[in-house]
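Why does residue order matter? Because the sequence determines the fold. Keep that principle in mind as you read this record.
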Amino acid sequence: MKLSDVQFQPWHTLVDRFFICQNCSWVDTDSGRIKVGTPCKYCGQPSPCGRIYSWSGATSVLDAIQDFYFLRRAKPPSPDLGGTTEHIHTNETDTRIVIPLLFCTLWEVLMTRFCVEILRAKAIDDAFQERLLSDYRYARDKREKLFPGLTGEKWIDALTELTKSSELNYTNHFEFYRNINRKRNAFIHGGFHWHFKDDELEKIPEELWPVFSLFAQLHNRYIPNLVRK
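Structure:
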């Protein structure tokens, strides 16, 4: 099923559907965790209840992408005297800008959450956490500077390793995001909205599951080990 074919069901119910073990912090899509007593497939401990692994900020951005995606396809009501309604209703130029901006925002929201998770798992003082997140406020700084400092691995090396054991190619997904992000920056700093191509906008919905999956796998690569220590 393609997300772009789903209009009336919120996309977050199809993409952001992870649960977390309250004992070992392992994250997966096993909805059986909702049932009390269901053993975790990672640590074997019974589930006291289902805990959703989600962040409201990411969910809101995801559903906003869906709204603007279908706004691009909305047809103006008829009759449209003078074409005024068509201009307001379709607003293709605005959606061409907004969808990529929201996609990059989603990436940054999830990257920040991941860094916060590691900082908390390492029991780093709250004030120092805030200072680190302030010092490395940009997503690129978090990937290239903060991430290696917290995990001992380079960002691209971690993606390469995760891709080896996944049906998804996280490295290719990251390159797609970087391409969109470069164009986002060109728009923000220079107003070049025409850099965004229709085929890129059409691909963004199918890149939403990979980004949520990627950060769930990054969580599993580091957080459970820190929790056990």
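Residues 55-228 form one domain.
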